[in-house]
Target: Bacteriorhodopsin
Amino acid sequence: MVVQTGFAASVATLQADDLVGEALSDPLLAGSLWVNVALMGFALLAFTYMGRTVTDEYAKLIVVATIAIPAVSIASYLALISGLTVGVVDIPGRGELVTLWGRYLTWTFSTPLILAALGLLAGTNFTKLFTAVVFDVAMCVTGLAAAMTSQALWLRWVWFALSTAFFLVVLAVILGSWSRDVESQDAAVQRLFGRLKYLTVVLWVGYPVVWAIGTEGLALFGTGIAGLAVTSWLYSLLDVGAKFVFAFLLVRFLAVEQPTVTRQGLGSEGAKPADD
Amino acid sequence: MVVQTGFAASVATLQADDLVGEALSDPLLAGSLWVNVALMGFALLAFTYMGRTVTDEYAKLIVVATIAIPAVSIASYLALISGLTVGVVDIPGRGELVTLWGRYLTWTFSTPLILAALGLLAGTNFTKLFTAVVFDVAMCVTGLAAAMTSQALWLRWVWFALSTAFFLVVLAVILGSWSRDVESQDAAVQRLFGRLKYLTVVLWVGYPVVWAIGTEGLALFGTGIAGLAVTSWLYSLLDVGAKFVFAFLLVRFLAVEQPTVTRQGLGSEGAKPADD
Amino acid sequence: MVVQTGFAASVATLQADDLVGEALSDPLLAGSLWVNVALMGFALLAFTYMGRTVTDEYAKLIVVATIAIPAVSIASYLALISGLTVGVVDIPGRGELVTLWGRYLTWTFSTPLILAALGLLAGTNFTKLFTAVVFDVAMCVTGLAAAMTSQALWLRWVWFALSTAFFLVVLAVILGSWSRDVESQDAAVQRLFGRLKYLTVVLWVGYPVVWAIGTEGLALFGTGIAGLAVTSWLYSLLDVGAKFVFAFLLVRFLAVEQPTVTRQGLGSEGAKPADD
Model:
């Protein structure tokens, strides 16, 4: 059962293992991971407690999607700490680079939850939510590919450009469609949506910026362990805002305000109440 | 294109291949896999035949979800037999351990189908089904991580604890929400749900127990091929109950009784018939 | 963090890397990949432009699913070009074989979108779409397993047979259920559905045929780079028809005709407007 994949192929394995082990035992880098394990563990418990008073089934759906965000996040950070989703990429002309590729993998699962929570709050319909989620997943998977690609440096930036293009579709849905959808909601929902929208858009723009200037990209902080730790801290801080603060504001609002969200149909004339 | 991942990193590859090949050619271990390929193959054909008389579209949805359970299972066991999803983990202080990690991977796909069938039978709504499935997938993925983690023994048990915590959410939905939801169904549906509920809860508790005492955990049967075969047989027998017996009871009921299941809306006031 | 998986296990890694690199730098093979990157990139832009005039939310859902097809495809071909999803399988009695396994992986994501677009056009319900998608994903994943399996040649054909069995379920839904569903639509939708149905069925049958006669199967064109390039071109041409032509016809129709599609409920008596 001998299969070599592009992912797996290597001879310099022992050395790679050393590099990964060395990186993960760096206190600054490890700190950037453990802090989010602790924070997201707290979030899981706190949000479950806060969300218990929500009674409306639709609001509960938003709460569950929101609570699942720190659940994915804690698993993501533990996987990095365990070294399960950390590897070494050997890029021509740059050398061996430790990559915490698990971040890009788990964003595939956490970011659709953030979009689901945001879109459901706006009372959007299935078509617009589907659009946002499909291009969001495409954005994350191509981001993962960017980090994994070692054949040539320019190919990494092709992936980056493709990922960014998909990101623009997500931004268009948030800033365009959903901002219009939310106008039929009451004032409190509109205010919260506006706040969460700007939080999300500003911080999400931060991720590709960190990618571009961090170890995966231009490596402005160097490609050594110090640069890796700085990059990791930047991502971790973005995660605190885009996941923890986002989820906290949303769950608190739903628990305190018990809002009613008006939802849209799929809009086809002649359509029966939909099951799809 | 040289990438080393945590998954792939190793020098003792030839030796690992020998270990996997040796394990898979053990008759006792191989038997624990082939018996389920045969059983699930029979199930696929039998359930498709049994389910052909179901006419109600909602009941058909339950039948399809149920038939998909042995479909995933047969692929899961063939992947183990093919060695595609079998590997070797080198745990500090314990040595090299053959792991049939494909089991944990494919549960990610089969267990949501079981929950979908059970929840749809109870007539539950999207929010509760979403809750069960999200935390079920989180449980399976963290279980996979537990089996893969080799950095330290204690980290494997951190994963195990996290996976068990997610399992508690799934249990709460089954034993709490769905047991209340099913009360609005007719008596025959209630009886079947009660039976399937206890079958599922009891057997699903068995899986983490086998993990804890089997080769991945405390290794009460040893870490050699004999211990591996015993552990594999225990999982295979649990699968027979939790997948084959579960699916058989459900498909037979739907085909014979042709029940009508009353379904809940999402409950938001002001909601139009939903598309999301 | 030393884990050896079936996927990863190998010592002949450097040699494998050479094989992959050699294959990917073959102009004929590389051409079969780049041509689809270019075509699908053009498709993404063109379909987005063409689809902008669609106003009905249900028709928009079909457009988004359709536009996502070239989005997945462009990422799939870039991943092959990057060598991320290309590997070497060492099959007993046949030797080392370069495999572009990423094709089978990404079909798992692109083919459900094709089925979603086709089923939504027919106005089918959730049960039938769920059936088609579940068995389609099972078909793709077992096809991936077929390409990855190196333990024995006959095991590859067991996977192939299983994958083909799942394919028959998909065909039954398209040719049976959906062909009946579409009869309640207006004449223009029926005509387009008929055309897309035959395009899909004929071309989709081509994929297992190419697998069977190509490098993964009987290797009628040899197992060298020339055989690989011929096989890759056959797949690429099938993709042009089954993805680009399919999507072009569908988006153009929706943009020009602005049709109204009548949708079915889940059909359970006593059901409230559904949320699941």
Summary: Residues 24-88+97-270 of chain A form a domain with the Rhopdopsin 7-helix transmembrane proteins fold (CATH 1.20.1070.10).
